[in-house]
Amino acid sequence: MSVDADTVRRVAKLSRIALSDEDVPAMQEELNAILGFVEQLSEVDVSSVEPMTSVTPMEMKKRKDGVTDGDKAADIVANAPVSEDNFFMVPKVVE
Amino acid sequence: MTDLTGLTIAEARDKLTKKEISSIELTDAYLGAIDHANGTLNAYVAVTPDKARAMAKASDEKIGKGEAGALEGIPLGIKDLFSTEGVHTQAASHILDGFEPRYESTVTANLWADGAVMLGKLNMDEFAMGSSNETSYYGPVKNPWRKAGSNADMVPGGSSGGSAAAVAAHLCAGATATDTGGSIRQPAALTGTVGIKPTYGRCSRWGIVAFASSLDQAGPIARDVRDSAILLKSMASSDAKDTTSVDREVPDYEAAVGRSVRGLKIGIPKEYRMDGMPEEIETLWQQGIAWLKDAGAEIVDVSLPHTKYALPAYYIVAPAEASSNLARYDGVRYGLRVPGGNIAEMYENTRAAGFGREVKRRIMIGTYVLSAGYYDAYYLQAQKVRTLIKRDFETVYADGVDALLTPATPSAAFGIGDQDMAADPVKMYLNDIFTVTVNMAGLPGIAVPAGLSAAGLPLGLQLIGRPFDEETLFAAGAVIEQAAGRFRPDKWW
Predict the structure, then answer these.
(1) What are the CA-CA distances from residue A67 to residues B102, B163, B245 (Å)?
(2) B447 and which of A54, B185, B197, B416 could share a cystine (Cβ 3.0–4.6 Å)?
(3) Catalytic option among B22, B23, B79, B197
(4) What is the value of ipTM here, to two decimals?
(5) Do the domain assignments include residue B371?
(6) pLDDT tens digits, residue range B429-453?
(7) B-chain residues near A44 (CB < 8 A)
(8) Which residues participate directly in catalysis (chain B) (predicted)?
(9) Candidate from B335, B348, B425 with C-beta closest to A33
């Protein structure tokens, strides 16, 4: 399978990465090189094989559903590019 | 006085305990070496001299009071992927500009609890995506090794290129690193250092910037096998903050160094003999086999039939997980923000400016293989192949094999700006062909220097172990090290 220019634009949109028109052909070529390389997986017979969900045979640990931490609003927003009164600030999303 | 940076961790520990040297002297020696070399080698992206001296002073006091920890006063470099409280943590990416976490990763917290001293943060491929350390926003790291009679700059491997170069050039006593597809073992092999990726779950991933969560593991890069064992003992732990962290006691790894390999069954997987593999890699491999045989190990030929599918499966699984993990970099919570006409444009502009080319490529591949209509053909197929890869290893281990011996990399270090690699992403990916299977199966693997190429560059061998049997790797790795000798680059920087 290979991707066309429109698919590259659509995937960029889904990835939330701005991609200029002049960058599309190079990205398309690189993605197709990788997709061409992984193509060989289709020749493996995987009938009756379970997909891997955990590489170590262990049950996921679950902690007690209780408060273990908190009251750190200032720490949480400390690295934000823009914040105000311990809120993250973003461009207006609702008109 | 002799150069203190020449001491291994074990040697420095001994001298510190006997109070022949102080941690302040040792730390100052490293800070001086970094000051002199880093402009050339570019191994550190941030140096923390004040913090280092404060930690060293505290260590000297503890040693004075007889309260020394296992790594008391030992100066280490930390890969930029580990969160360090109040200190530069950017995964060598532009998108995390200015990020200084308010928390400490579990692995580094373990090291500081044992008394280690932080020298600074080490360069790496951006978000650990790369095999040459050339994708870093901070520019490439230079390998302290050069070809004999040449002054061309070589890559140190990646993604932990800064860690490997700093250890090889004696700019730290040892370093932390991480390995998702070979990022500890490949740079270790290319710089003549020792690197171990432990079993998945052995080191906590908490506070390590995530790349591909089902594959990422932390481990050390060190000058010799003993030092790598000392470091792993401190880095590993059980951690309630990482649900994949294993509840198992951490063994005394150092005790395994020097343990006999007599009677161990070492498997030689025939699928690791690749077409077009340089003769000198094959020769090195045969030499390693002979050394282990001489030490009393039994050598058996084994087959891991799905080996060739590990790398293509990895290039579906790893980007898929990365595309999800890297969704958090949106210009809202940390790092870079590039404005746009609306919030979606702000996200898109931030991510376009903040991520480098390799990272964008992998996010897009991951997004594509997870998108509606393609999930089954790519992602599900890859996860089924991954089951088969793991089953190959399980079958061999069930037959009584204790560990496997393979080359660590398909070649020695290549030049910075290699045109073939730059033109074709897949060529670069092939660097990890011998290491990536180990991540796919969650197993431990160690790279040990075993010789020099005809051009005079270091080459490594890899030992792959059973789950949580790092001790056998340290024992067998020490046998190779003993036979091969130590390798040091001639200082040109």
Answers:
(1) 19, 38, 21
(2) B185
(3) B79
(4) 0.96
(5) no
(6) 999 999 999 999 999 999 999 999 9
(7) 306, 309, 381, 384-385, 388
(8) 79 (charge relay system), 159 (charge relay system), 183 (acyl-ester intermediate)
(9) B425
